[in-house]
Amino acid sequence: MSGFPILSIMLAVPFVAALWCLFAPGSPESRDQNARVTALAATLIDLALGVVLWVNYVPGGPRWQFVENSALFGKFNWALGIDGIAMLLIVLSVFLMPICILASWKSITKRVPLYMATFLLTEIMMLGVFMAQDLYLFYVFFEGGLIPMYMTIGIWGGARRIYASYKFFLYTLLGSVLMLIAMLYMTQHAGTTSIPKLMEYNFASQAQTWLWLCFFASFAVKMPMWPVHTWLPDAHVEAPTAGSVILAGVLLKLAGYGFIRFSLPMFPEASAHWMWLVFALSMIATVYTALVALVQKDMKKLIAYSSVAHMALVTFGLFAFNQQGIEGGFLVMLGHGLVSGALFLCVGVVYDRLHTREIARYGGIADNMPAYATFFLFFTMASVGLPGLSNFPGEFLSMMGTYEQSSWAAFIAVTGIITGAAYMLYLYRRICFGPRKNADAAAMPDLEPREWLTLAPIALAVLWMGVYPESFLKPIRGDVHLLLERLHPTAPASDAALTIPHPNVPNGPAAAAAAGEH
Amino acid sequence: MDYLSSFALSVPEEILSAGAIILMLVAAWAGDKAARTIGYASVALLAAAAISLVGAPSSGALGYSGAYHADAFAAFAKLLIYVTSAVAILIAPSFFETDNEPLRAEFSVLILLAAVGMGMMVSAADLLTLYVGLELNSLASYVLASFLRRDGRSAEAGLKYFVLGALASGILLYGISLLYGFSGGTGFATVAQAFHGTAHGDPAYYGLLFGLVFVLAGLAFKIAAVPFHMWTPDVYEGAPTPVTAFFASAPKVAAMALTTRVAISAMGPATHDWQQIVIFCALASTILGGVAAIGQTNIKRLLAYSSINNVGFILFGLVPGTAEGASSVLFYLTIYVAMTLGSLICVLQMRTRDGLPTEQIASLAGLSRTRPGLAAAFAIFMFSLAGIPPLFGFWGKWEVFSALVAAGFWPLALIGIATSVIGAFYYLKIVKTIYFDEPAVELAPSRSLTEGVLIAIAALFVSPLGYLLIGLISPMTDAAAKSLF
Fold first, then answer.
1. What is the pLDDT of residue A132?
2. pLDDT exceeds 60 at position B274
3. Smallest Cβ distance to A170: which of B425, B470, B471?
């Protein structure tokens, strides 16, 4: 594959398709249909290219693969390249995109060409973030993603879309601009804009402290972490279904990716120094957002708060400074991307029929929508962390890693699993079980083939991740090892003080073997 | 120094002055019928002047006994000035045509004269050259502001501009007299020598400092930096829109380049003294320019506050007083004129069905459905002014803050860039009106091909394609900035 610019092509395909969506001639109806088909085709091509990427990625090969570099911009470069972590996130993005297009097939009726073009631009920006190997190229993609998302929420959103779009844009912008100043400082001190080189550069520890905080300002908002999470429920509630899927499925992963790519390897000392802050915020988020989710009357808001709680598990894991934690945090990112995306699709299915997100308006729909109820239950269980489904391996590893680092943090993190089960099951009971108290809800037809097409692939992926997580751990293992080597000298002492059992002790080898499996 | 070689240095000014005088005579005899022809001739003159910049006028030589500096810095600023002046001339006819006052033939001539003045400003190596150039530009501008003689707002704008401009000139002249008195000369080099040679505690140093403060205050008026910005919204709102486009671009470039040159060449040894003034003006401009714009309902007033906001960011580039900073000022100006001219030409397109111009932001509602192309261009300019990548406006901010951070001012850079979020709010408001709101007034379709082409060029320049030009523009601004030191 060397020499073939597959990453650039993955960015170019949606761009060309977006132009065609906008400028294709024809009557309004034919342009709408043309935009839908074009967008679906483009996202499917990208999905195919994503699969090619996965198949051709060599785990344990060079750290950066599919590298491209050309000095196009005078002061920074068009530098692309991926490691295993970026590769899997790219695959997640291209996997969710065609599903989003399908989910919007009928529910979006006004200004379809613009909608599809906006979505394709969102895809370019997201993929670009994961591919960029130049600091400023990363920033351009990272920030540029705000524009299409702002448009998506603002034009096709719900009743309070204007407020939500402003809040989304300004919150994330304020976080990101501080990161820009930190980037300027970094390039001037390290003399390079290349991310791989910066990942090996040692900044003075005092500088690390404030650089880390600037990056944290951006990623904490994007993640989102308590107390800067408040934009997320608003944005989710008002965004159209597909917008929510992309927001929860991929955009929230940008921050986790940022922690793995920037905060941890570039500022290892500061990461250790501020670990308490990350843990404290994650602990509050776990308890607080779970309680808030319990009392929500709006389905989308409930799932949005559950996202915040899940993201806390990601930050716990990533800042645990050990292999289990980082791998677990990453798996939660992938799993949550699939599951929360699917849950938003489930909400979208009933919203398209009844045009309300109020939980009380539904009830007992398992009778008239059995297939829907099955899918919904499946994804609810995955979200709760049922073993065998996608979130379990990640959550387990993440909590194990957290325990190794701080037993108190792990104690709080585990409560999130219990409360998570509480609010998700409570939601499911109110919607699918119980008496059929609303006639219109009871008359809703079951899934149509198009909706099957959106939910079934995700269900399969969720099952795959739950049964055989090794497929997703293998590509990232080498990168996590390199990251840990970088973090090792500064790793803070653990309070759990685990010791490896001595081989002479009875059961020793068995226990060691059991630990090695994970 | 012999006059012939001095003349060779100021060829652009000579072309423009001679051309302006001849065209003035043509205007006197041929009358307003010839307005368009005179306009095209003026554009040709500006193009000729721009071409003549290659060679002696950018050689770096001092002419006219050290009063005139023909260096790369001046040449780059002049290039921007000539291009933006030409744009202002090109967009004028269609605006005046539909207003019951036809375009008068003197319009283009006045812009040419203003361009001569601005050329003198950016080439000034002496406080008196500076003053003469500034006044030539200002006098032409006062007339341009009140060009719609039957419109009360236009007359008010002209008068306000004149009174406040005269006050600013007075302040500037007072500062110049102080500098002259305490340094013994008006040349920038003499003033710099005096700053350099006087001890910090010396009473004479305080005299020089007073001069510095007054000169900077006078210049702050010209660039409309807070706290000397008050005239801007009224003048921008009242002046005919092509004139507003002119005010927001060319004189801004000239005054900003002039301020940079004075700060670095004449007051370079006192960098620590003027730095605090510039920091205050920069922060105050970005904050006030952002906050005050939020409540505006008139698009031209809003763009006036936007220009104040942008001047704040440009001033951040001046703060370190380094070559990198001066280069960032020029780079930001280059992008800024494209964004601001583009958005003001979009304003020119805002006409109701019966052909009347409208300036209410509310009348932009739903523009994306009635005029998708114009709406997209408008949105591009707004996001670019807000400094959101992947649009090119972001790169201006990048350059400025990069210079700040390089000089060790990173805490200031953090505060400065945080204020840009305030500005982003009102730019978003325009995008919201255009894209999210239901259509209100249907705007008439475009009638001017020139405007369409100019909007397209500006939009392409600030689109992500602009990034490809960094490798081209950056060496030019770097060379220009280096010539100051």
1. 93
2. yes
3. B425
